[in-house]
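Forgive a beginner's question, but would it be possible to get a protein, spelled out as residues, together with the matching structure tokens, please?
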Amino acid sequence: MRDLSASRPRRLRLRFRHSRGQSLVELALLAPFLLILLLGTLQVAYLGYGAVTVDTAAREAGRVAGINLSALSSIAASGNSYTCATNPASDSNPICKAVANNAGLLSGHDFALVRIDLNVTVAHRDDPVPGDVQRLACGGTSLSGTVSGIPSGVATISDTLNGTSATSSDSSGNYTDCLNPSPSNGQTQTITISATAGTGGQCTGSTSAVLTKSGGNWDTDKSTYPIALTCPTPTPTPTPTPTPTPTPTPSSSSSSSTSSSSLPSVGPGPSAASCTTQNPAAGSFVTVTVQYQAGIFVPFLGNLLADSGTSYKTLTATVTVRVNPCTA
């Protein structure tokens, strides 16, 4: 009778060799995809680190620019713009050095651009809420108009239906008054829309609107309701006439003691007004722009991440700050 127990180890060895060869083939097929995944992860992490670093360097440079009038004055003497050295660490300007000191692992590398612009004009953005959003938030009828004669800031709007502080105007005086209370059937009511502005609300004005219920809401003539503010004329305060003070005649003893104990006079220190006469003036704006070209080391990602026709991605950060008065 044939003994099968002797051939069993041989079959197990053949099966193990076959399984090991199959694993090597599968690894060889998957290795390129695993390598691509690893390199792609490293590339994205490198770009992310570079973007955060450039933003941090620009913010710190902007902070230094806002408080260092002496550095800005040297730039203003030759124009309203200054470009730092390619390696900001080698530049003597403290704003440029702030970029290098906060560049993290990029410190000591060449930057594509580090520029400081003075007397930057900052545009005021006034983004009004869209009309459909206003109607949705209002839940009823809204009246709109423009308040004129605002001395500064915005105007506070109120009406005899809602009570006080229904809404406020924007910086241009445009307002939208929401009439939330639901009217009774067939009710007609005349309301007064009032506006106040200025210090203590001394500037006032009002207008009237006739409202009638229609479909559960107040129905108006759909026109705008302008409000003209009137500000009281300030009464000038009379300047009192100073009374001359007689000058006492010093005696010989008092004059000697005064001369020996008197201290030398000290000139007046710097005033807030002198700070605004510097160039750039306190209260103006300065912009710091930082650009770094991060290389793309994964070839197949070049078409997706690199700038057109290059092998790098330009990372840019721009920070605009206000120049603080009376700083070193």
Remarks:
- The CA atoms of residues 174 and 274 lie 37 Å apart.
- The first helix runs from residue 8 to 67.
- Residues 48-119+280-322 form one domain.
